[in-house]
Amino acid sequence: MIREVVFVICISASLYCFPNSRDEIDQYNQGTIDLLNDLDSCLVRVDYTIERAEDIGYEYGQGYALYLKGYIHRMQDDLGKAFLANLKGLNILAGNDDERAPETLVRLYLNTGEILVKHFKYSEGIQYYSEGLEIAKREKLNNWIIDLNYNTGNAYWRSGDLAKAIDHIHEAFKIAQQENDEYTLVNSLNQMGLVFKDNEMYDTAILFFNRILTHPYEGLDADKYKGRAYHNLANTYAQAGDTIEAITAFYKALEYKQKRNRPTEIFITQNDLAELFFKNGDLDLAKEMIQRCIENYEEMRLDPDHYKVFDLARKINSAMGEHTLVNHYANRYFDENDAFIKQQEKLIEIRDQFKMEVLTASFFGELERNKRIAQLNKAILWISLLALIVIGYLRIKQIWMKRLVGKAVGELVRE
Fold first, then answer.
1. pLDDT tier at 13 (50, 70, 90 boundaries)?
2. Averaged pLDDT for residues 401-405
3. What 3-state class would DSSP assign to 119?
4. Is residue 167 helix, strand or coil?
5. C-beta separation of 153 from 169 below 8 A
6. Given pLDDT bands bounded at 50, 70 and 90, which one contains residue 147?
7. What is the pLDDT of residue 396?
8. Which stretch of DSSP H or E encloses residue 390?
9. What is the mean pLDDT of residues 236-265?
10. How does residue 167 score in pLDDT terms, banded at 50, 70 and 90?
11. Dihedral over Cα of 46, 31, 67, 355: its sign
12. By CB atoms within 10 Å of each CB, which of 23, 235, 266, 320 scores lowest?
């Protein structure tokens, strides 16, 4: 008897604690968002929510949980799993009539596009952005229209299509002005400056970077954005061949970045300035700046753009005839390069472009398979319906014939 009571209490507790209705699933999803500081626990929650939503046929709850799952995997830098979760969410929510579905679909298209762009699949990423943008425009979701245009422009910039990059970034800029979105407004000015710099339209690029410097900052950290603007302005001057203006702008960038005391931001400017000094033949200044730069290296993420600082230090010391330091920095560069290669080998399953193509192909293969299964089920349904009609007709005919035979027998008996 005691066992039975305990069993009932456990079942009741589980029914109380876990989602069993649409409202409870929505609340459970919201609760997961509130616990994003513990990603492993969140994954357990979303997997359970996905199962429960599927059990009760709640497609929106299932799709939103998959969106959360993809987001969590991205926070864990597990982009392969995030990619698959997003695609499953898109498949489930396509055509869903819940009023919240369009915005969730837009989020999924945006996130999936970002993953593809990170894997250098620019055209595929742009396709997902375009799908999301179409929904965002239809539903008048201006904040997502801004983000999708900005991301699309950035993807076109990375793929080398500078004209389309400008079109989309400028569109994001215009709507950001209307919506008082200061963050996108300033970032769009910076991105347009970079695009024009890469297009060797230096005067136009300088104009955009200067607009960042004169922007009346309200909610943003002015030092951060002015430091970045001066840095990009310096590289624009350097690329245009104006070394004096470039050096002046680099020092202004350092001034703003040192106010923020962010070693990673300071490192990037010191590295570029040291390279400019070296190219200009100012070896003493180049050596001084590269040594200051290396002091901040331990704060940097392991990346070729960062550990190339040791190769630059090697070149500077080689030009100055300091061979002991040349060997030291050469060895340090090779050590960092080996560490980077080993790191990439560990991440190969999610970093490899071919892997993403396989994931995409396998998913859409699954969609095609599901489509064929749906068609087969439809055919089976029609065959079953036809069989029921035939069986019904034969049954009715059998009853009718029995009545006819019975009537005939009765007439014979009366005769």
1. very low
2. 52
3. coil
4. helix
5. yes
6. very high
7. 74
8. helix 353-414
9. 95
10. very high
11. negative
12. 23
**Residue 12, exposed/middle/buried by CB under 10 A (0-12, 13-18, 19+)?**
exposed
Structure tokens that stand for 406 in this block: 């019975």
Tell me: pLDDT of 190 over 90.
yes
Distance CA 397, CA 37 (A): 70
What is the C-alpha to C-alpha distance for residues 385 and 391, in angstroms, rounded to an integer?
10
User: Which tokens hold the place of 367?
Assistant: 């969609």
Residue 18 CB contacts under 8 Å (≥ 6 apart), including other chains: 24, 28, 48, 52
- Residue 276 CA to residue 292 CA, distance in Å, equals 15
At residue 408, what is the residue type? A
- pLDDT value at 16 more than 50: no
The number of CA neighbours under 13 Å toward the Cβ of 399 is 5
**164: Cα within 13 Å, side-chain hemisphere:** 14
| Environment class of 270 (CB within 10 Å of its CB; exposed 0-12, middle 13-18, buried 19+) | buried
Contact between 43 and 51 under an 8 Å Cβ cutoff? The reply is no
Local structure of 95: helix, strand or coil: coil
186 touches 152 (CB < 8 A)? no
C-alpha distance across the termini of the chain, in Å = 74
pLDDT of 45 reads: 83
Query: In the prediction, which pLDDT does 42 show?
Result: 78
pLDDT value of residue 276: 96
DSSP string, 269-298: HHHHHHHHHHHTT-HHHHHHHHHHHHTTGG
> If we measure between CA atoms, which residue out of 73, 161, 18, 133 comes closest to residue 359?
73
> What contacts 323, CB < 8 A, 6 or more positions away?
317
